[in-house]
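Appendix C. Worked example: Beta-xylosidase
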Amino acid sequence: MPLRRRPFALLAALALLGAVTACTSAAVGDPVGTQLGQPQVPESNAPVAPRDLLQLTVENSRQSSGVVVAGVEDAVYNYAPAVMLDGGKVRTWWCSQMGSAKPNGDDILYSEGPTADGPFSTARAVLSGSGGSFDAMHTCDPSLIKVGDTYYMYYTGASRDNHANGSSVGVATSKDGINWTRANGGQAIIVPSGDVIRANTYGAGQQSAIYLDGWVYLLFTDTTGYAAASNGAGQYVLRSKDPLFGKSVEALGPQGFQPVERTNQPRTRSVVEAFSADWMWIEAVSAFAIAHSTEHGTTVTFWNKEFTRHPFQSVLIPGPWKEGPGLVRTPEGHASATYDPCNRAALDVLRATSSDGSGAPTNISHFGMDVVGLNGCLTADEAKTLNGFAMPSPERTADVVMNGKIVRFERGSVAAKYAVGVLAKRPKIADSMKVAVRVPAGAPAVRSLSDQLGFLVDNKLIVMNSLDAAQLNSSEVTVVTQEQWDRYERLVT
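Step 2, the predicted output written as structure tokens:
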């Protein structure tokens, strides 16, 4: 939340102010806590209807056995993690302070591990104060997305301990997530609006980014924003197709997204009353999930894409906390698909759980659960979450969804080798998808010199993920040169 170094008594006071409710300042009837209103369940045969405060079931609650992420050397505090599932690893960046990283101030540390429970690699500093500009002393509160082959890190910067409403949002870029270059000429991309000067003089920061449909959506705190609570708690949303927010910027207001000339124009709508929130996009239900700290843990509040409705009642990930949570997300800031992607979502967070003797938040641990009852995959956009999944076919064969179309395999065992997962039940939306390719038993197979395997259908190649697929399909295999392999037209890309 607020940046360091400064008195930790102030930190504790601000944290308590931020843990008040899960309410919003956007509309009457916004969810508070974990149980609100009466769930509304759409009829099974009804046309697609808006989800409205549906009640989710919680299953598979989980918690690490102890601390999973920690600083090294003299890093007394560790908090505000950003967590990315990337390349088969769980990568995390968080706010800390290491004496060996100059200048003396907040640093962003990095570590990686095989799962959210670790074990994580030894922490190292990857971004520190610039020595000049808005982030001269402190860099903190990282949030990351990956667009193409470029990582974007949005971070809070401050030039001194006494923020005086000077905290602002910066951005840095990287090709590996470790070596960073400040973008936008090293200048802030979002500064405080200055709508209202309050006792909480933090400023703007604690941002969280999502990449969706070509837009970068940025959720952030601004204690000077008009729509914040009296203690400065509030979360605002800007979006832009420019990751540096230098052009084509839109702000979320009472009438939805509207173009703005500057990123610090009056902030007229807050989507949740909180500090240090994180969020992600759940594709299967076209909804944002915002994780923020409340009295008994991390509350997750849901908004539809237009921010006009809460599709689900909020849920609580219980347990100790001392600072804002970091959701486990994909490189674009989306929820990862579960084994039942239309009906189940995984909500996992890393968060600081205790304070050291000085009051600094530290001891980052993993907490999580699944929410069930999404009633998802009702539209073509939502069905994108099915990409790569196999399911029963109406022809008593097996279908795999690829880029909104069906690849139909005569043998289910072969489909399973091609798929990323297998569904026991066929989602209704799949019946509207075109069958693009049929792979019969015995289809000829080719194998490259680098041990890649594919089936030939109409002399076009469908690349498989397993060498075993040829035997399972009773296919004769022909070994081809790499040049021949590369020349085949691909059926599915």
